[in-house]
DNA sequence: TCTTGATAGATAGTTACCTATATACCATCG
DNA sequence: CGATGGTATATAGGTAACTATCTATCAAGA
């Protein structure tokens, strides 16, 4: 009917487009990781533990750039799924050391391969230059946003 | 310790960077919309209704590009928040016509303004050309992803 | 030593999405 | 006209995030 066009293109803003892209990416990745028993959110944790970059919940949350309660819940799911184990830190009664199970370690390479494949397919038709610029612009956008919310 | 670097940059892939950007955008937008009583997910619905582009749950879901059950739950929240009302479709007992309340209509322009402002700030330092290219590349990425998941 | 503040993690409650499935109504064809 | 298939919405249950708040432990200074 009217097509009033009062708010023309909220749906063409970077903010909305990025949200669409993120959902589409997540759906694809989730479908491909499910057979391996991984959720998409697990991957930063798996990588951090595999590479010895974090061992405590706090450090994992920082590494994955999510809040502590989100990480706490994720670790509950990962433990339930048999991917991590916790051993109490002898030196600090509040903290646990988190480590990968053999299952998790065995499946991680394939999960990474699937994600790289998905990224390749998502960027199909991008020249090397376009891909590089896209990533650079994304990085600048993220920096701007993090500065904004920290203020 | 080791820094094995087995899975070097899962965290620098477009997929992960986009997810970071989307979360940062959502956090910022949510903070700014909360005083108006809107959630970030509401906006496509508000705009679709305001512009007369959809009236039923099904059409709203298509317009917002989310699944029907997600839209159903969102409409429950929006009704609870006094932003929409439903009137049963006289011609089809399964369906309802959804419309904006005066409150919603009154607040929508300010919400859109806040979102545009946030987008502007997020793109600070981007030349017009960079912004245009970023949006174009994002569009191609989304197309690729939607083709992939539809297959 | 004891209190006080900081830190590690847990819990509660919410949003925004998803898949899978159920229900209820409509429409058509034999 | 009644079964049957399709469509509109609802419900169930799950993931991945968030904020706000609580608890337990640690560390340091009065």
From TrEMBL, chains A, B:
Annotated InterPro entries: HTH_MarR-typ, WH-like_DNA-bd_sf, WH_DNA-bd_sf
Gene3D superfamilies referenced in this protein's UniProt entry, alphabetically: Winged helix-like DNA-binding domain superfamily/Winged helix DNA-binding domain
Domain HTH marR-type: 11-143
GO terms of molecular function: DNA binding; DNA-binding transcription factor activity
Record carries keyword Transcription: yes
SMART domains, per the entry: HTH_MARR
Keywords tagged on the record: DNA-binding, Transcription, Transcription regulation
PANTHER family linked to this entry: TRANSCRIPTIONAL REGULATOR, MARR, TRANSCRIPTIONAL REPRESSOR OF EMRAB OPERON
Protein name per Swiss-Prot or TrEMBL: Winged helix DNA-binding protein
Species annotation: Methylobrevis albus
Lineage: Bacteria, Pseudomonadati, Pseudomonadota, Alphaproteobacteria, Hyphomicrobiales
